[in-house]
Amino acid sequence: MLKLIVFSPAMGLISPSPFSMKAIALMQMSGLDYEFVPGDPRKAPKNKLPVLIDGNRTIPDSSHIQLYLEREKQVDFDGHLTPEQRAVTLSFRALCEDHLYWVGVFDRWIMNADYVREEFFSAIPAPMRKIVFNKIQKDIRRNLYGQGLGRHTPDEIYAFGAADIKAISDYLGDKPFFFGDRPASLDAILFAFLINNLVPRSSTRPAAFSVKSHPNLVAYCERFIERFDIPQV
Ligand SMILES: N[C@@H](CCC(=O)N[C@@H](CS)C(=O)NCC(=O)O)C(=O)O
Description:
Structural class: alpha+beta
Number of helices: 8
Bound molecules: glutathione
CATH architecture of the largest domain: Up-down Bundle
Strand content: 5-15%
Strand order of the largest sheet: 2-1-3-4
Number of domains: 2
Largest sheet: 4 strands, mixed
């Protein structure tokens, strides 16, 4: 059976990583039999999760997992899309994975550090917990600075994220799925990133950066969970 290695449940989500959640969403959409197992990115081939295992084949990266399902398992996520919709798919994928993702990292690891430390590292004894967390947070700050977003003020960073979320909400409008009645791979991506924004935070954040401010996006996440029976904690 296919095995999907993802981050363990936390923050009320079956996996608190948008990329792991995307892979779970794709697997649920595929209708294939699989099991998901919590893993450690340090043991993954590219030091990131998710990873799909199919017999002796190992496929890291959520986009490569999608390609693998399409090519090797004949899963048709996007066959119904027009060339224009495929271009929109690539653009919104980049918006989520290369932009909104980093705002989420900033929101989570920098602005809500206490909450994240207790949620993710509660298994580590208290005195060590802060040390481990501080080291990871330092690496994350460096990554944010390298990516560029970390050079802005919190208000500027949140404004970028709010604009991303508004663009998703505006494009979706009152359609059931992003391109209409029939879901596509982009819905797995959008769902994964939006649901990760929706989980509770310990401190206040600008309302504009909250998916909760967009009722059509909240309804969209609920619709996706129901349609694809997304596992809950
Ligand atoms: N391009 C990758 C990105 C995966 C990714 O960034 N995963 C993060 C969690 S959301 C991770 O494994 N981080 C661990 C680390 O960087 O050490 C994909 O699409 O799967």
